[in-house]
Design goal:
Blueprint (H helix, E strand, L loop, with lengths): L1 H46 L57 H10 L3 E6 L7 E5 L11 E6 L16 H10 L3 E4 L6 E6 L11 E7 L11
Parallel strand pairs: 1-3, 4-6
Antiparallel strand pairs: 2-3, 5-6
């Protein structure tokens, strides 16, 4: 009996001893792992030279990020508005009545024509062909096409009547105006001129009218009766 109990106690003692050994070995393994991790963390901390806030470190890989720029301070000046232009001709475009006082009226007329201005000759009772005054006055701002009166010192001189028969009505009118005369349309303003009065080299003075008959040269024929 004694030997049996003793064997059981030895067996039990042996089992408890083995459990203690296993438990002790496990605790030792855990402690070694902890010590190793701590040592590795310390070694890694000693090798890392970077300091400061890790969020401020610039990266060289990955997609570029958008740059945020601060808004410019306002100057306080309003934005310039669009310049409005007008298609119609207005005064102040630099066109003025040219200085023609004292010049020959034919020369003054050509000066106005080159600037696309109209003219009207007003002859006086004095002596000479020079321009004494204008209306509007010299230097007045005008628009193209404005008629300027040229007041001439002396009376209207003799004018040469051109032959305009056979020419178109428009061509005849231009030629008469160039000679200082004005056309008077008796019939119509279309077609060719088939008659004029006074005739070529007739008596006339500047500003006189020349009557012209415009239209077809063909005479209407009577319709045959059935």
């Amino acid at each position: 009996m004694t030997d049996t109990n003793t064997g059981q106690q030895n067996a039990a003692g042996g089992g408890a001893g083995r459990a203690s050994v296993v438990l002790g070995g496990g605790l030792a393994a855990v402690l070694l792992a902890a010590v190793g991790a701590t040592g590795g963390w310390l070694l890694a901390g000693e090798d890392d030279p970077s300091t400061g806030d890790p969020l401020a470190v610039a990266t060289t890989s990955g997609a570029p990020t958008a740059r945020v720029t601060a808004p410019r301070p306002s100057s306080g000046r309003p934005a310039p508005s669009a310049v409005q232009t007008s298609a119609t001709s207005t005064k102040g475009a630099g066109l003025t009545v040219p200085p023609v006082i004292g010049t020959d009226f034919e020369q003054a007329r050509e000066t106005l024509r080159k600037q696309r201005l109209g003219w009207r000759l007003v002859f006086g009772g004095g002596v000479g062909r020079s321009v004494e005054s204008t209306a509007p006055d010299v230097g007045t701002e005008v628009t193209r096409g404005t008629t300027v009166q040229l007041h001439v010192a002396g009376p209207a001189p003799a004018a040469e009547v051109p032959d305009v028969v056979g020419k178109s009505c428009a061509e005849a009118a231009d030629e008469l105006v160039d000679e200082g005369l004005y056309p008077r349309y008796v019939t119509q303003r279309n077609g060719k001129v088939n008659r004029q009065e006074p005739t070529e080299d007739g008596s006339a003075r500047w500003n006189d009218q020349v009557s012209i008959w415009c239209g077809s040269d063909e005479q209407p024929t009577a319709k045959p009766t059935p």
